[in-house]
């Protein structure tokens, strides 16, 4: 069904056939969703109905979309003035009353993800990343420091998902005596649909048991509608907040930047910039990251999922597309309200195919928060230093942020002044390090990495205390062998392979 609908040619009779098929799919979906709602209790049914209305809009657009969402020939590099270098914005300096600017800001962290990819149960934001501090601890410390330093009241808003909400709310009790007001709202819960029938696979509204894989949080583009539905958007506007700074909670570089905030606040009212996307220069590690383009006279985010296969290599090229989206975004609250009221937020649909444990092929329909940039007035990019993009997606990233490459001050990580190069080392840890618990068990303590350029570790390898790594270090334990790097070892431009085991006797 799915293929027959999307793959049809565009003849007149076919169009009529497609139209009927589309209507049929939408009616069937509507019936199934109503049947699901009838299994919910009253409170859950109300919020789920709002979610389902959002899903039906997305589903309708998914059926309407013909072919790729971009024409490659119409893509241009963004004009010079639309992506400003951070240095230019910083050169303006700061006003005497920066606390007035801060009084109009709220910080939103995207907190819908689980730690499963790193072998942890529960919300990813509760993984310890530095000195026993979790992502959430560091975020609270940063904002509390800001509020104390400038005698202001910047609130923290967490966008949770149905996967993370309960666990996060339990933890929030511990911040009661911190100087930061914390609000939460939930992003929508959408039904996964069968790839063939395009119908939900859920049997009822439960999120556990046989239904555990039936639901998903629909990507961070859902922030606009769920923020609005929660009532928090209007609450913050009533309190005089004008902008939100949005970022992923696992990006430890995403702190409130006073220079960007001042830039936003100092624009003339008629030219007020409603959306800033922080971008940074691509390296080989970032070739898949979304990039800013000029398209139909608008700034637009281009994701790899939208690129026709024939142009993927061109998209990954560091010469044509030099920058990528860090997902640190500054967005006007009144503008979100206006666009929500007019139903004018236009975000490309990301079709995310998944195969469930039993082998069933399903589709998730998602959107990305940055894709809405084209709907906002006077939107721009700011090319920020790499230090503002420090995501922890894997244990390799975790090793970097736990090491002496960074120092921790009031919840913020900064690159050590003792490191000669501003770039981070390239670290690749093998599958024996994927899970956080296993990763931690392989280090007596984290090695000195101040002079490290590249580290590859594969196989059964452990590190003793006070190991120091410099230059390029490659350690490969063959299958069945084990390598123990002894305490106090200094490896500089070394390849260690085979079987190395130091035993006490």
Automatic annotation (TrEMBL):
Binding annotation for substrate: 220
Q: In which pathway does it act?
A: Glycan biosynthesis; glycogen biosynthesis
Q: What is its EC number?
A: 2.7.7.9
SUPFAM superfamilies according to UniProt? Nucleotide-diphospho-sugar transferases
GO terms assigned for molecular function: UTP:glucose-1-phosphate uridylyltransferase activity
Q: Which GO terms describe its biological process?
A: glycogen biosynthetic process; UDP-alpha-D-glucose metabolic process
Which EC class is the enzyme in?
transferase
Catalytically driven reaction(s): alpha-D-glucose 1-phosphate + UTP + H(+) = UDP-alpha-D-glucose + diphosphate
Domain of life from the UniProt record: Eukaryota
As for what it does, the entry says: UTP--glucose-1-phosphate uridylyltransferase catalyzing the conversion of glucose-1-phosphate into UDP-glucose, a crucial precursor for the production of glycogen.
UniProt similarity note: Belongs to the UDPGP type 1 family.
Its assembly, as annotated, is: Homooctamer.
Query: Sorted alphabetically, which PANTHER family does this protein's record hold?
Result: PTHR43511
Q: Could you identify this protein by its name?
A: UTP--glucose-1-phosphate uridylyltransferase
Organism taxonomic ancestry: Eukaryota, Metazoa, Chordata, Craniata, Vertebrata
């Amino acid at each position: 069904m799915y293929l027959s609908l999307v793959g049809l040619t565009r003849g007149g009779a076919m169009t009529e056939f497609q139209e009927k098929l589309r209507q049929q799919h939408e009616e069937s979906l509507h019936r199934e969703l109503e049947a699901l709602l009838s299994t919910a209790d009253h409170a859950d049914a109300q919020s789920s109905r709002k979610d389902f209305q959002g899903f039906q809009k997305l589903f309708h657009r998914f059926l309407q979309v013909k072919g790729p969402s971009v024409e490659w020939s119409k893509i241009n590099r963004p004009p010079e003035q639309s992506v400003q270098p951070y240095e230019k914005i910083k050169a303006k300096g700061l006003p005497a009353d920066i606390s007035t600017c801060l009084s109009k800001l709220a910080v939103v962290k995207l907190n819908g993800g689980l730690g499963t990819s790193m072998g942890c149960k529960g919300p990813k934001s509760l993984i310890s990343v530095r000195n026993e501090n979790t992502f959430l601890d560091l975020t609270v410390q940063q904002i509390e420091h800001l509020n104390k330093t400038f005698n202001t009241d910047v609130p923290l808003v967490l966008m949770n998902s149905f996967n993370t909400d309960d666990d996060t709310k339990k933890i929030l009790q511990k911040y009661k005596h911190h100087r930061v007001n914390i609000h939460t709202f939930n992003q929508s819960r959408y039904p996964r649909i069968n790839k063939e029938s395009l119908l939900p696979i859920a049997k009822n509204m439960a999120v556990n048991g046989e239904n555990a894989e039936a639901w998903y949080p629909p990507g961070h583009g859902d922030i606009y509608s769920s923020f609005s539905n929660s009532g928090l958007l209007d609450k913050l506007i009533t309190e005089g907040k004008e902008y939100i700074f949005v970022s992923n909670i696992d990006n430890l570089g995403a702190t409130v930047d006073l220079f960007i905030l001042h830039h936003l606040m100092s624009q003339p009212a008629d030219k007020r910039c409603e959306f800033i996307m922080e971008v940074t220069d691509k390296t080989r590690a970032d070739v898949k990251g979304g990039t800013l383009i000029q398209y139909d006279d608008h700034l637009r985010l281009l994701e790899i999922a939208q690129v026709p296969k024939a142009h993927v290599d061109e998209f990954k090229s560091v010469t044509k597309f030099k920058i990528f989206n860090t997902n640190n975004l500054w967005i006007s609250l009144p503008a979100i309200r206006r666009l929500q009221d007019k139903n004018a937020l236009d975000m490309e649909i990301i079709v995310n195919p998944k195969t469930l444990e039993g082998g069933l092929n399903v589709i998730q329909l998602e959107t990305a928060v940055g894709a809405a940039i084209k709907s906002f007035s006077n939107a721009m990019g700011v090319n920020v230093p790499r230090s503002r993009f420090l995501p922890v997606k894997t244990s390799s990233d975790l090793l970097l942020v736990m090491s002496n490459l960074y120092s921790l001050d009031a919840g913020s990580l900064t690159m050590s002044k003792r490191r000669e190069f501003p770039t981070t080392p390239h670290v690749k840890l093998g599958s024996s390090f994927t899970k956080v618990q296993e990763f931690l068990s392989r280090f007596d303590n984290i090695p000195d990495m101040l002079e490290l350029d590249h580290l590859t570790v594969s196989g059964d390898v452990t590190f003793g205390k006070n190991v120091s790594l410099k230059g390029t270090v490659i350690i490969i334990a063959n299958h069945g062998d084990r390598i123990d790097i002894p305490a106090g070892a200094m490896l500089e431009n070394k390849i260690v392979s085979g079987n190395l085991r130091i035993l006490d006797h």
